[in-house]
């Protein structure tokens, strides 16, 4: 009965896998299942390799086990697991209920995973176009050969052809590197926007004073190499001045930061779809002219002069 779950986990996106594990942990913990049993049940039901390692690491704390298991993962996925470990650590230190925080954190990861899917959809057309156009230089060479002109001899047997090969190859290499660089820059870097507010909300929900709660969160953020805390100080000042509990204000601020991050990711994906046309016009099309059209013209002129 476990095989289907494991096959499904193998096809799941990394962030979606972390979100699924976190969501199931929150449900089990809210139902009163012990943490050790919760990890075992989640590992069995999701087939997550990392969850299995944490469930089997009985000699270390949950947070340390998560960090050890996530050490060799992709940076974004590893940061998502570190966020889970940080939430677990803060809740343990502050004596706060963990299940509500894990539920919110899983939703944050689901939102980010959906933003990545939206980015892939937005990039599908320009990326496919760029890949197709990359074949144009080869098509130009084959077209010239089909017309009866020995463009390959021009490219590989003459000084002009060698220059064309060098220039065309350089243009295509630049286009490939340019495309990869733009796609990499458009990918989300923060797996848990608003994690600082979430952690602070956990700490204060355990009954800790604000200064003590902030110390716990700062220490945890530094320990797990999480992004710098954003938006917490303003919320705490509002809580003090208005005399209202800080937890709900912090949760609201975290949700706002997640909405902003999701919108920014969607905007970056839409803009990238346009920017990917730059390497097409500035590198790929000139490479087509240099490798496909110019050698064909040289072959035509050479054959014409030779026939005279």
UniProtKB/TrEMBL annotation:
Pfam families: T2SSF. One of its GO terms (cellular component) is plasma membrane. The chain crosses the membrane at residues 123-147, 153-176, 276-301. The keyword Transmembrane applies. It is found in: Cell membrane. It comes from the Bacteria. The keyword Repeat does not apply. Residues 22-143 form the Type II secretion system protein GspF domain. It is a multi-pass membrane protein. Its main location: membrane. InterPro entries: T2SS_GspF_dom (IPR018076). Keywords: Cell membrane, Membrane, Transmembrane, Transmembrane helix. This is Tight adherence protein B. It comes from Salinibacterium xinjiangense.
């Amino acid at each position: 009965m476990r095989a289907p779950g494991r096959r499904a986990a193998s096809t799941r996106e990394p962030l979606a896998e972390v979100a699924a594990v976190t969501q199931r942990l929150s449900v089990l913990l809210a139902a009163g299942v012990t943490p050790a049993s919760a990890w075992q049940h989640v590992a069995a039901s999701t087939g997550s390799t990392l969850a299995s390692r944490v469930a089997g690491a009985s000699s270390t704390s949950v947070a340390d086990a998560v960090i050890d298991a996530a050490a060799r993962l992709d940076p974004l996925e590893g940061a998502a697991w570190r966020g889970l470990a940080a939430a677990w650590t803060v809740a343990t230190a502050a004596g706060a209920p963990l299940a509500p925080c894990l539920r919110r954190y899983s939703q944050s990861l689901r939102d980010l995973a959906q933003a990545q899917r939206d980015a892939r959809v937005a990039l599908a057309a320009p990326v496919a176009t760029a890949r197709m156009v990359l074949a144009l230089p080869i098509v130009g060479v084959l077209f010239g050969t089909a017309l009866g002109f020995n463009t390959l001899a021009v490219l590989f047997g003459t000084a002009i052809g060698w220059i064309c090969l060098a220039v065309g190859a350089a243009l295509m290499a630049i286009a490939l590197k340019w495309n990869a660089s733009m796609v990499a820059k458009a990918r989300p870097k923060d797996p848990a926007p608003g994690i600082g507010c979430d952690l602070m909300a956990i700490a204060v929900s355990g009954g800790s004073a604000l200064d003590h709660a902030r110390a716990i969160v700062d220490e945890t953020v530094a320990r797990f190499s999480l992004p710098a805390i954003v938006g917490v100080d303003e919320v705490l000042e509002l809580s003090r001045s208005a005399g209202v509990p800080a937890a709900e204000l912090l949760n609201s601020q975290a949700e706002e930061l997640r909405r902003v991050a999701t919108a920014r990711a969607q905007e970056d994906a839409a803009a990238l779809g346009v920017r990917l046309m730059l390497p097409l016009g500035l590198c790929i099309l000139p490479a087509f002219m240099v490798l496909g059209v110019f050698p064909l013209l040289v072959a035509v002129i050479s054959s014409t002069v030779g026939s005279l």
